[in-house]
Design a protein that fits this description.
By secondary structure, chain A is of the alpha+beta class. Chain A is built from 14 helices and twelve strands. Classes of the chains: A alpha+beta (427), B alpha/beta (469).
Chain lengths: 427, 469
């Protein structure tokens, strides 16, 4: 048994442009998008015919038939079919969690290489049958005689035809994620202007990342879409100010502009041990140094639903002997502009840091010029499972371009009061 | 004693009419009831940068389990964190229209010159209209005498005008206070802040009080029963304000020794009997009264912890018409007797360590009043006595202070002519008369073993009367 821990290299990643709901990918399934993305990654790193340690991927909105979706995707690619695969699901943290799982196996020497990915379609969403109808149909299925079947069939009622469409709401509070974020924004006194400014920065940074060619080898066209559909390079605070609030009531500060839209897309990242990378002549872009998940009690303690990363990051920093200012890049997933701003305010706040995080002093501030420097989810869109892969791949390249030893922090909030965070360092 | 006007304007029609024609609108003030929290509602705590009192204030707010709000990046927020307060975030920009506060507490001690008074403006401008009924505005500052230079002294002195004006602007029974906390006196803030936050200070507004350093500590005090194990002498205890004082001190855990003249013995015994106290019947103007009081206290109680000089009379006449007797009687009872009793108690060391002398002065003593040259002189003399004796008494680790009641609803005021009475009632920021209990609560605050930082001070219980400064 291997008792040493190996460094986990990020060799690179790729994604398809993210599309808005019912946009160009309206008829594409999760499997279509993920397979295409894996194919692009295989092409980029010449992985055809390779047996990888594993492929781990997942999404939030899945059909029940997709119980083994990632494996099905692998079988549809040029990877050797002997490559194992499994699905992961942790709401918006799915993509990063998949990367952590693969990375940990590599670190322990259980595998030498793997792909972490994620996908989501809000267009080709599963529609479930009405719960009453489901019970009747199951009863019919269980019935052993024609008479019993007929009896069960007699239980059918017209209203049972109404299907169940997936809702973006928290099971235990009944509130949508946007409503939860609006509560947080209110609690933290986050203004509309701050949110709109962050949104504009996201669009400008992403537009610049396209214009400078940074994204040329990170994004591959799909179904005619070449750039993220949601990107508005000419976005401005003035334009955003015209939008009506969609969460938090009439006087709410959250709009369709400073909240991420429902979107479709997929991403994938290639991870490996250093020996495997050398053997395959693939340069290491960055290392996944450490990771931490956390959760808040949004149900009983009424903590902010999307505040879990505030708990995870201090643990991560302490374990690695770092402070919040020791990073060259901060990739904070912009589920909502308000979520990012609440997170930053919380880390600067002596009360929150002491009462909730148990810290003697505030965690500190970050240099905003280092935040989501190549765009964030507000501009790119946020196919739930695909965001982690987008961030890991982008950050790896940013770190490689910055300098050896440069460091980046990833923070992703997720439904259910979850947070997934990680540290990456340049090779 | 009933205030018919107040009852009338608080009827639905009365409210409409009084508003239309701009009559004063006195509300029913919230008053303390046993077991009630110190403050029932959210408190907004703020601080000018570089202040030294937000920490002490935050600790008190934590101790009274107040729901505290602070602005992000306000010095008060670090103070709140240090005090272990899970303070909510206040933002004037994003707050709900309906957000209201029961108290606004602002540490102005960081204000170092007049330009920085803007911090006080900035804190109160968006919040002053969010004060609830019977709410509290409390500004903490540095006594101008303790300031580091003329500019700081000037700015700190400016707070007086600021706070007194707030007292006149806030409505619905809300009050405003300025508390000057001397250097090294930060640990003495608690009893005063608790008093001003609570409904106990219902009829006190527009006051400026100075807290000084004190070696006396109130560690481990039971705030529900601060007088537990202490004895308190109350003169004129059988009726009116004196009776209320006896009741409040007994509520606070004191053994009350009620004193009154022989003519009121049965009333005294009834009042004090209910409180489980003891009585002392004598005329304080008798030559041997001070000795008899001291001996009684030493013999039966081993000394005394609290002395309340409440006994007083009026004999009103304009000076030209006033008789010798009228002059002499008022001065003898209201002032000379107090002096003689104090001297005797101190000489016999009957006032125990952490003892309290609390005198009852009067608004007339502050401002003067036609027909009351005798009374006003006696009551102004009480203030002089408090000021002049404070250093001496401070040395024996005790304090002396005075309360100066304004218009208090008693049998005495009920007997006034209606015009005088109505003028007295309305000419203050709360547009109503106070109750005896309001005076008693202020006395109990001074009498508390935690109030060692208050010595030689006078506070008015007058609803911020227009009369006097």
């Amino acid at each position: 048994m291997n008792t040493s821990v190996r460094r986990v290299a990020v060799l690179g990643g790729i994604r398809i442009p993210f599309a808005r709901q019912n946009g160009p990918y309206a008829r594409a399934s999760n499997q279509d998008m993920m397979t295409a993305t894996l194919e692009a990654l295989i092409g980029k790193f010449s992985l055809q015919g390779e047996i990888l340690g594993e492929v781990s991927a997942g999404g939030v909105l899945k059909h029940s038939r997709d119980f083994n979706l990632t494996r099905e995707c692998v079988l549809g690619t040029r990877l050797d079919p002997h490559t194992p695969a499994y699905d992961v699901q942790q709401a918006c943290g799915t993509g990063l969690e998949a990367a952590i799982l693969v990375a940990n196996k590599i670190a322990l020497g259980q595998i030498d290489s793997g792909i972490a990915g994620g996908f989501d379609t809000t267009s080709d969403a599963p529609i479930a049958v009405n719960e009453d109808l489901r019970q009747v149909l199951l009863e019919i299925n269980r019935a052993k005689s024609p008479a019993a079947r007929l009896k069960a069939l007699a239980g059918l009622r017209p209203q049972q035809i109404v299907p169940q469409i997936p809702r973006n709401s928290e099971p235990r509070t009944g509130l949508s994620m946007g409503e939860h974020a609006a509560i947080m924004a209110k609690e933290w006194g986050v203004t509309r202007e701050e949110q709109d400014e962050l949104t504009v920065a996201s669009h400008r940074n992403l537009a610049a990342a396209y214009d400078t060619g940074f994204l040329d080898d990170l994004v591959t066209p799909f179904l005619g879409l070449e750039r993220d559909q949601n990107l508005r390079p000419d976005s401005s605070v003035e334009k955003l100010a015209k939008l009506r609030p969609v969460f938090g009531g009439e006087n709410g500060t959250m709009t369709a502009g400073n909240s991420t839209p429902l979107s479709d897309g997929a991403s994938a990242v290639l991870l490996a041990g250093e020996d495997w990378a050398t053997a395959h002549n693939l340069p290491v872009q960055a290392y996944i140094t450490d990771a931490q998940t956390a959760a808040v009690d949004h149900v009983h303690a009424r903590e902010g639903l999307l505040m879990a990363p505030t708990y995870a990051v201090p643990k991560l920093l302490e374990r690695n002997g770092l402070t919040l200012s020791d990073f060259d890049f901060y990739e904070i997933h912009e589920a909502f502009a308000s979520q990012v701003l609440c997170t930053l305010k919380a880390w600067e706040d002596p009360v929150y840091c002491k009462e909730k995080l148990g810290l003697e002093a505030p965690l500190g501030s970050i240099d905003r010029d280092k935040l989501n420097t190549h765009g964030g989810s507000l501009a790119a869109g946020h196919p739930f499972g695909a965001t982690g892969g987008r961030i890991v791949a982008g950050l790896a390249k940013m770190l490689k371009e910055k300098r050896s030893g440069s460091r980046g922090l990833i923070s992703i909030c997720a439904a259910g009061g979850l947070g997934v965070t990680a540290i990456m360092e340049a090779a | 004693m009933s205030d018919r006007y107040q009852q009338l304007v608080n009827t639905p029609i009365g409210k409409i009419v009084s508003k239309q024609i701009g009559l004063p609108a006195p509300v029913k003030l919230e008053r303390y009831e046993r077991g009630q929290p110190v403050i029932d509602g959210p408190v907004l705590l703020g601080a000018a940068p570089g202040g030294r009192l937000a920490g002490a204030a935050a600790q008190v707010l934590a101790a009274v389990e107040a729901e505290v709000h602070t602005a992000l990046e306000d010095d008060a927020r670090s103070a709140a964190a240090d005090a272990g307060l899970d303070a909510q975030v206040w933002s004037a920009e994003t707050a709900d229209e309906e957000q209201r506060f029961k108290a606004l507490v602002f540490d102005a001690s960081g204000i170092a010159d007049s330009t920085e008074l803007h911090h006080a403006y900035a804190f109160f401008h968006p919040t002053i209209r969010r004060v609830k009924a019977s709410g509290r505005v409390i500004v903490l500052g540095t006594p101008p005498d303790d300031a580091s230079g003329p500019r700081q002294a000037t700015a700190q002195r400016a707070l007086e005008g600021f706070v007194r004006s707030i007292g006149k602007e806030v409505r619905k029974g809300a009050t405003a206070q300025l508390v000057y906390v001397g250097q090294q006196a930060e640990d003495q803030l608690e009893s005063t802040l608790r008093f001003y936050l609570s409904p106990k200070s219902a009829y006190v507004s527009g006051q400026v009080v100075r807290i000084g350093a004190s070696a006396l500590s109130a560690d481990g005090i039971d705030w529900e029963h601060p007088q537990a194990g202490r004895s308190a002498l109350v003169t004129g205890a059988s009726r009116g304000i004196g009776r209320a004082i006896a009741q409040v001190l007994a509520r606070d855990g004191a053994h009350v020794i009620g004193l009154d003249v022989p003519a009121l013995q049965s009333e005294l015994e009834a009042t004090i009997g209910e409180l489980g106290g003891s009585t002392l019947v004598l005329d304080i103007t008798d030559d041997d009264a001070p000795q008899r009081i001291a001996e009684h206290l030493l013999e039966h109680h081993g000394g005394v912890d609290v002395v309340v000089h409440n006994a007083g009379v009026t004999r009103d006449k304009t000076l030209g018409r006033m008789s010798d007797e009228q002059w002499d009687m008022v001065i003898a009872i209201n002032l000379s007797a107090q002096e003689r009793i104090n001297e005797e108690l101190l000489a016999r060391q009957a006032l125990r360590e952490n003892g309290r002398i609390v005198c009852v002065s009067s608004m007339s003593g502050v401002a003067g009043n036609a027909g009351q040259t005798n009374y006003a002189a006696s009551k102004a003399g009480v203030i002089g006595m408090v000021h002049s004796m404070a250093p001496e008494i401070g040395k024996s680790r005790a304090t002396i202070n005075a309360v100066a009641p304004g218009f208090i609803e008693t049998q005495m005021t009920a007997a006034m002519p209606i015009a005088t009475r109505e003028a007295g009632r309305r000419m203050n920021s709360l547009a109503q008369g106070g109750l005896p209990v309001d005076v008693a609560e202020a006395i109990a605050w001074y009498a508390s073993p935690a109030s060692g930082g208050l010595n030689g001070t006078v506070v008015r219980v007058c609803g911020q009367s227009l009369v006097g400064a």
